[in-house]
Design brief:
heterodimer, A: 356 residues, 2 domains, nine-stranded antiparallel β-sheet, two-stranded antiparallel ribbon, 11 helices, globular, B: mainly alpha, 7% strand
Chain lengths: 356, 85
């Protein structure tokens, strides 16, 4: 779907909006009423790509798993329907959109807390070559996909394997202000603030997000965790820190090997992930803000996520890489909630209860 | 004696060696940047990120009406698909 050509057409000829299907369909306000009146039904899982007019006329949908040619035909059909509409639907300024009105409570709550630090995260499935180098995955790394050869099917269209999966992490202002301790000196070493370390581990250093979805795992899933900060440099302008450590989540390898369904369609997978972590943080003492928060994690994962995702099965251990970095948090796209911070259309209270 | 001790010695050596075979080494500082670039979206990937996404359907309607354009609405199951789904 997201080829360079398609993306160019969408950027130039559409106004693009991304929403949670659950929130959009169920919100109790004018925006929800409008969407429900269009007849569009957004799926609870899997997602949708729908096109409509500002006045609420449905133009059509893309079938994302259909492949590039299918999507191009979808686009042509949608643009033809748009062009066939009367001018009072298409002329700039012709359609009048009323005020938004009060926003539903649960929607208002799914926003970054004031002053929060917003980190962008990426998860990527990797493969380790025989010489130890890690690289991006390719279809031949997967037993089921390798059998398909060059065949173009809906399975190969799902991009979660081939591209980095994006998410966000939120750190409250009171938390990030406590990460750098008073009177820092080079060589000082201490654990990363517990609430942040716990949230980073249970909501973000998780293998599920490499497949595009996850939530916050429970405390029992964390077999071990050690995230330590070392002050590496101090000046009047800044404090620089190094974050190092590791975590062990889910089952241990032996348990996974013994109990995992090994890609069986019926599921019941037993997974585990053991990332190592390295990061570099810079705190600007003049602006009292972090100007760098770069973290990477790399570790071996094992087990098959999800029964009907048996196409994702790989035997043994395979590496997953995770990176975190500062996001400006100014655009709407950078202010969406972390996946673990919501449960469908409401905030997940566990997200900021970490460390307790 | 050597013939009965040797298997035990071999087993002991293997037990010592096994963690080394599978243990994930710490990330070397000189690998940090390369690893980070490998993980993050690379050139040619994730073209959807080049689109200026709104996250409010109302705001999209206002802009679409002003500009005379149709709206593309991308929904995810659990959250907006610009992040984890």
């Amino acid at each position: 779907m997201w080829t360079e050509e398609m993306t160019k057409v969408i950027r130039e000829q559409f106004v693009a909006v991304a929403v949670s299907g659950h929130v959009a369909m169920n919100r109790k306000d004018a925006e929800g009423d409008f969407l429900r009146k269009t007849g569009i039904k957004l799926a609870g899982a899997g997602g949708n790509l729908e096109c409509l007019t500002a006045s609420g006329i449905r133009l059509g949908a893309f079938y994302a798993a259909g492949g590039t040619e299918h999507n191009r035909r979808d686009l042509d059909g949608i643009l033809k329907k748009w062009q066939a509409l009367p001018e009072n639907e298409r002329t700039p300024g012709a359609v009048k959109v009323g005020e938004a009105g009060p926003v539903a409570d649960n929607v208002r709550q799914i926003a970054p807390p004031d002053g929060a630090l917003i980190l962008r995260t990426y998860h990527r499935l990797l493969t380790r070559e025989t010489d130890g180098r890690v690289r991006k995955v390719k279809p031949s790394d997967y037993l089921q996909l390798a059998k398909l050869g060059d065949k173009d099917t809906w399975v190969t269209h799902f991009g979660e394997r081939w591209e980095a999966q994006a998410d966000f992490m939120w750190i409250k202002e009171s938390e990030w202000r406590a990460i750098v301790r008073p009177d820092p000196e080079p060589g000082n070493q201490y654990p990363l603030l517990e609430a942040v370390a716990d949230r980073m581990t249970r909501a973000h250093l998780i293998m599920g997000m490499a497949y595009g979805e996850c939530g916050i795992c429970d405390k029992k899933s964390v077999r071990a965790r050690d995230l330590t900060l070392t002050v590496t440099a101090v000046s009047d302008d800044r404090v620089e820190l190094r974050l190092e450590g590791s975590a062990a989540l889910g089952a241990d390898y032996e348990t996974s090997e013994n109990e995992d369904r090994k890609g069986a369609r019926e599921g019941r997978s037993v997974q585990g992930f053991e990332p190592k972590v390295l990061g570099y943080l810079t705190y600007d003492r003049k602006s009292n803000a972090f100007t760098r928060f770069d973290v990477v994690a790399l570790g071996d994962a094992y087990g098959t996520p999800g029964g009907d995702h048996h196409f994702n099965y790989r035997p043994g251990r395979y590496p997953i890489g995770i990176s975190l970095e500062l996001a400006a948090g100014k655009s709407p796209a950078e202010r969406i909630p972390p996946r673990a911070a919501v449960i469908y259309d409401t905030p997940n209270p566990q997200y900021f209860a970490t460390g307790k | 004696m050597a013939s009965t001790r040797t298997p035990w010695l071999a087993a002991a050596l293997l037990c010592t060696a096994a963690p080394v075979l599978y243990a994930q080494d710490s990330i070397a500082p000189d690998q940090f940047n390369r690893l980070r670039e490998l993980i993050r979206p690379q050139s040619g990937e994730s073209h959807w990120r080049d689109i200026p996404w709104l996250t409010s359907l109302h705001e999209a309607r206002v802009q679409a009406a002003a500009e005379g354009k149709p709206i593309l609405l991308w929904s995810g199951g659990g959250a907006p698909p610009l992040g984890g789904c």
